[in-house]
Amino acid sequence: RDGRQLGALTGLEKLAVVGEGGRGALTYQPADEAAAETGALDLDALAAEAFDLLTGADGDHPVLERAGSGSGGARPKAHVWLSPDGEARLEPFTGATQWIVKFRGPSDPDDIGPLEVAYAGMAQAAGLEMALVRLLPARTGPGRFATQRFDRSDAGGRTHMVTLCGALEAPPGETALGYDQFLRATRAITRN
Question: Model's pTM, two decimal places?
Answer without folding.
Answer: 0.78
